[in-house]
Design goal:
It is a single chain. This protein is of the alpha/beta class. The protein folds into 2 domains: 325 residues, Bira Bifunctional Protein, Domain 2 (BirA Bifunctional Protein, domain 2); 92 residues, Anticodon-binding domain (Rossmann fold, 3-Layer(aba) Sandwich), CATH 3.40.50.800. The chain is built from 18 helices and 17 strands. The strands form 3 sheets. The protein has a 9-stranded mixed sheet. Helix 1 runs antiparallel to helix 7, helix 8 runs antiparallel to helix 13 and helix 12 runs antiparallel to helix 13. It is elongated and about 95 Å long. It binds one RNA strand of 78 nucleotides through helix 3, strand 6, strand 12, helix 14 and helix 16.
Length: 497
Amino acid sequence: MKPSIPKGTRDFSPQEMVRRNYIFDTIKQVFQLYGFLPIETPAMENMETLMGKYGEEGDRLIFKILNSGDYLEKSKIQSPKFEELDYKKFTSEISEKALRYDLTVPFARYVVQHQNEITFPFKRYQIQPVWRADRPQKGRYREFYQCDADVIGSNSLVNEVELVQIMDEVFRRLNIPVIIKFNNRKILNGIVELAGISLDKINFILEAIDEFDKINRDIALDKLIDKGFNEEQINKLKNILYQLMDDVHPNMDDLTENVFIKALDKIFYQKSEIGSKGVIEINEINKVLKLLFGNRIHMMSGLISKEPSQSYNINVKQEDRIYLHNDISLARGLNYYTGSIFEVKVDKSRCKSEFTSSICGGGRYDDLTGIFGLPNVSGVGISFGADRIYDVLNELNLFPESVSASTKLLFVTFGETEQNYCLPLLAKVRKAGINSEIYPDAKAKMKKQMSYADDKKIPFVAIVGSDEMNNGLLSLKNMTSGEQTKATIDTIIETLK
RNA sequence: GUGGCUGUAGUUCAGUUUGGUUAGAGCAUCGGUUUGUGGUACCGAGUGUCGUGGGUUCGAGUCCCAUCAGCCACCCCA
């Protein structure tokens, strides 16, 4: 049998794991810096916990786990003709568990289940794999890690601002230039409402908006006729959207006077309550961001990202800027989002990346716990895609050199006597906190031992033969420079510390 | 769920157009040059049901059909 692993899954070798841990550690440190504490939940959840939370598409992509035992025997479905079988019904008969699809829904379940032990607002982070039965492709895996931070039990928009800070901080530490986009579901709902379109058709509108940068916007919107929209609805949409695209420009001198936001406000004023509410929210977030970051903010706004314009203070160095985009076309995120929505993308204008998928996303969900029996608890969170971040860091060559070396010192010996002499010394080195090891096969040739050090990128080798044992001076070789000196074990410890 | 591309050694690929004896190369691995010195150099070695099944043919890695797997794009998403 030829060994292999399922499509869309990967093995991680030591070098990759060291690098992955660098990402996890960076994210974890920032989460903790902002007061989030870790939890973990099981890889599998009950089927009904997951089903119906991610939309129709999501349900299809959930990995189902087959019941153990003779499920045909246990199934209550009685001898239906094969053609008449409803696969959904049948699935629920033979499968009661599924692999988690994201970390947010299991978290909501956790919160409801442990509500009496939890102090609200509850800030948790969670770094675990999730599974999706999607067709794998570039940047898309069937098993991948999400790194989530959520605040539940607080309506304050300060949470949103803190999450923006976290996104900025994480990517700043990782040296990835990004644009943080945010929008509000209520604004989208408002636009749809004003056009007299029912909410469940919102996805068609968003698809059309998405096409604006590919094809003529008139054509994109006129195509909506085929989806069952009437001319009046389409004209209203055009009216609203074109106004937002053509008449406004961001004004960063005073974010609270953001012309784009004002235009939105005017559109919704006394016409759409939900839309107005969305504008108030996004404006409030902008205001607090302005308070925190001042003229470091480089704000873009509009339907599709326009030229950055002079909307930032030229005295602020590029690396200090935080690139934000009030992107009204942003609708990403799962079905359960009700307010703010976030998405982070690599800023291709500041690096040569080919990566177009989002590397972080999130939003506010007002009633996810309600489904599990705890209503009126609002939560907001973000999720970093560790695997995609890995791909970006790899592509841009941004992994620090030091993360690939872990062992600092290797003892090379010529036989059992030397090995026995070294073992206590090795223990001493380790006690000093220096990662070190000894080549286990005492009779191995020197070349073999040296190659081992070389392969593992171990920077120092202590060579011990009879000379060294006699006078207590070990030969310490610097593997990078090739230099070799004689030193006592204590001096070596001091050098490597 | 829809569409496109690709399956040959551990790995990356050549060979397929135009069927012809024993299927090649780089890298990696292992051994040696060198029994106290790695990363360089030189020498040597091993490895393949040519994805699988069937068909055409005197003859198939090569042509035809089916099937499986992988990659990429759409949809959607981290």
